[in-house]
Amino acid sequence: MQSGLFELLSPNPPGWGGNLLRGLANSLLIAVGAFGLGNLIGIAGAWGKLYGGPIVRDLLETYTTVVRAVPELVLILLLYYAGTDLIGRLLEAFGYQRIDINGLVAGIGVLGVVQGAYSTEVLRGAILAVPQGQIEAARAFGMSPCLMLRRITLPAMLPFAIPGLANLWLIATKDTALLAIVGFNELTQETRQAAGATKAYFTFFIAAGVLYLAVSLVSNVFIGRIERWARRGMPAVAGGGR
Amino acid sequence: MRNMLIKAAAAAAFAVVGAFAASAEPVKVGFSPEPYPPFFSPDASGNWTGWEVEIINAICAEAKLECELTPIPWDGLIPALTSKKIDAIMNSMSITEERKKSIDFSDKYYNTPTAVIGPKDQTFDATPEGLKGKIIGVQVSTTHAAYVKKHFADAAEIKEYQTQDEANQDLAAGRLDATQADSIALDAFLKTDQGKACCDLKGMVAEDLEILGPGVGAGLRKEDTELKGKINAAIKAIRENGTYEAITKKYFDFDIYGG
Amino acid sequence: MTAISLPVSVRARSWLKPHRIALLAVAAGLVVTAALTMRWDWLARYWDLALLGIWRTIWILVVTTVLGFLLAVPLGLAQAAGPRYLALPARVFCTVIRGTPLLLQLWLLYYGLGALFPQFPWIRQSELWPYLRQAWPYAVLALTLSYAGYEGEVMRGAFAGVPRGQLEAARAFGMSRWKIFRRIWMPQATHRALPTLAGETVLQLKATPLVATITVIDVYAVASKVRQETFITYEPLLLLALVYLTITGIIVFLFRRLEARIPSRLG
Questions:
Q1: B55 burial level (CB within 10 Å; 0-12, 13-18, 19+)
Q2: Are strands B178-182 and B135-139 parallel, antiparallel or unpaired?
Q3: DSSP assignment, residue C61?
Q4: Which residue in A81, B85, B158, C209 could disulfide with B80, CB within 3.0 to 4.6 Å?
Q5: C210 in B contact zone (CB under 8 Å)
Q6: Can you give the pLDDT at residue A235?
Q7: Chains contacting C with at least 3 CB pairs below 8 Å?
Q8: Residue range A207-217: average pLDDT?
């Protein structure tokens, strides 16, 4: 705490604010990437769990159970080291050059796989919540499965899925902090470095906390809007409002 | 047919991931992204500076290698090297027999004694008797961690930290009675305001070549003999042409290469 | 849940379909391959330490969930029915805890507070100092607050969800406020929260390895130690994943037993 608070947190080089903001940008980039990848896995996973064959279903069950039971930290270490090693070895086995997977891509991949397991469950629950009659009606009109997915299932399940997905987004923003353990330059790691270099641990950890909180609060505002949009035209759920 | 399909899939994966990969083939030099002055320090614009950073640049320039500093946490450096995530470790890593079981080393590029520091209001020396009943902090998987386990484990309680900076921090906070590390790194800490206020040098530990090793070298994969040859030649060259001395003078008033 | 009423033999048969046997065989093959081709010689040397680590993980989990739940009850109550001057701080607390990463909270408590100690020399003379010097109180505090923050939100919903008629009926019987809380409100709210409680406890288990970053030696720290000392990368992590899977299984099983013991007819 040798120098003033504002000098330390100033975004221009003698201050470390710029480092924190760069870290925040990296965190958000990873969160967006992981959330997107997670939802792609989730859509495929939910589809597989509901309509897939017995083997697909059991494999997906194993995936979601293991990911939801093992700490993210352990999964990140396993996937970060083993995953990239495995891809490298596979490429070599097929006669390609080993490629270098940078921290950003690895981080998105690892957190995406974790998010995918939760997303699978959220989307599966949401699809199941769509009244059966709507799907039967669509089928009775002779809709193709593709058209049915696009026009009926996806829009109808959205209101049920959004609270769960919103929660997953908030988890994604916070889970990026775990990548500090594998040395990726996201917000928590940048904070740790700034704190270590200046010895102003308290100041920097509080500052980072404010940034994370701001992300959560801003997200909540948007989530509220999206939820209202997705529920448009639906009858108000008793006691559902907050 | 099946084989072709797999190959096609691998090719597709390669194309996707390849888009993110750099096109050239730089030598990836792994280091732990933690403040370790005066060898490695982050600055406020997100760059790394310090004696070792400059030496790495000098060695790479001399060997005509395109080097890329790659941050990997300290305890992940050796696994990252063996799994080819990085190609070399240059992070004040001592050459030891234990590490040589997994990886190879270049020749040393510096060697300094090992010190113990502690709070000002306590007097003791860096011996098992002096450290009796104390709590001593070290960084995980360092030569110092191995040293305190062998020499001080019976006398003192040992606490292991992810970074040396965190051990220094806990010493200043009063949670530790002592920390053992490289004398130059500890000296840099004692010169900070925080270090000046809390702590002083308690002494150098007794030599144990088997554990502390003959000095700091670049960690390399055992099969990478070509890179080893290039780096050894470059270390020799910068020692002879004065580059090493010029960089060292900026940071120290003595030669840290050691005898 | 109809499976529960089926005879055991039928359940076993419906579970052991042909493809499951094939999948189990593949899984068993993988386990055998792992056992034969990977390195497990370190196990004997670290066995005692691993058991100690597992014990510490479970200890931290149990202590912080119990303390966290005790803290979550007033937090939930304040938000659901408390006056504004209690509801607002409780809400802010839950928002802050839920809006920031636990890792950051932990480092703020441990290193952030630690950095302030030298400025207040009297702390080192205080009677709390022997505890403040160690790492586990910070770990327990951070995890307790975190659990309280998440569970406080759940309890808010649970308290608010108890039908008003029940509380009014209790009041009509002349029960005191404390008795209503103890006999009617609290048990019903807890029962409503029970299914989420199991999930939150598993999440809490998954948060425990973070304490290793502030020098507490839990089972994760032991696995890291093995990795650092032997340079074996994957084997300790795989075994560690198995340990967490097992503990999760036990938690889920215990909560199922608990839920089954409480009659599920709500008024």
A1: buried
A2: parallel
A3: H
A4: B85
A5: no
A6: 64
A7: A, B
A8: 96
**Which residue in this structure is represented by tokens 């990848």?**
A37
- The predicted-structure confidence for A113-136, as pLDDT tens digits, reads as follows 999 999 999 999 999 988 888 888
Dig out the tokens for A139 from the structure: 């089928």
Report CB contact under 8 Å: A193, B72.
Answer: no
Which residues of chain A from 191 to 220 reach within 8 Å of chain B, CB to CB? 192-194, 196-197, 199, 201
- Determine contact: C133 vs chain B, CB below 8 A: yes
Domain A5-230 grouped into CATH 3.30.420.360: no
d(CA C220, CA C50): 9
With an 8 Å Cβ cutoff, are C118 and B172 in contact? yes
- Domain definitions of chain A by residue range: 5-230
Number of H helices, E strands in chain B: 11, 12
Q: Which of A73, A216, A217 sits opposite C210 (nearest CB)?
A: A73
- Is residue C237 in some structural domain? yes
Give the max Cα distance, chain C: 71
| In the block, residue with structure tokens 């040395």 | A183
CA angle A241, A238, C190 (to 5 degrees): 80
Tell me how many domains chain C contains. Answer: 1
**Does C37 reside within a domain?**
no
DSSP-assigned letters across all residues of C185-235? IHHHHHHHHHHHHHHHHHHHHHHGGGGGGGT---HHHHHHHHHHHH---HH
CB B162 within 8 A of CB B73: yes
CB B75 within 8 A of CB C224: yes
Asked if residue A161 lies in contact with residue C76, where contact means CB atoms within 8 angstroms, the answer is no
Q: Which domain holds residue C192?
A: 47-259
- For residue range C235-247, list pLDDT tens digits in order: 999 999 999 999 9
| CATH number, domain with residue C171 | 1.10.3720.10
The pair phi, psi for residue A193, each rounded to 5°, is: -70, -45
Task: Find the helix or strand (DSSP H, E) in which B108 lies.
Answer: strand B104-110
- Is the pLDDT confidence value at A238 over 80? no
- Alpha-carbon gap, residue C153 to A216, rounded angstroms: 16
Note whether residue C241 is domain-resident: yes
Which domains can be identified in chain B, with CATH numbers?
26-111+214-251 (3.40.190.10), 114-212 (3.40.190.10)
Q: Which residues of C touch B75 (CB under 8 A)?
A: 224, 227-228
C38 in any annotated domain: no
**Of the candidates A72, A105, A91, the residue with the CA atom closest to the CA atom of residue A181:** A72
A22-76 residue pLDDT tens: 999 999 999 999 999 999 999 999 989 988 888 999 999 999 999 999 999 999 8
Q: How far is it, in rounded angstroms, from Cα C86 to Cα C77?
A: 9
**C3 pLDDT higher than 80:** no
CB B215 within 8 A of CB B149: no
Residue with tokens 């699809």: A127
Any CB–CB contact under 8 A between B4 and chain C?
no
8 Å CB contact between B87 and B106: no
Structure token pair of residue A61: 């069950």
Structure confidence at residue C123 (pLDDT): 86
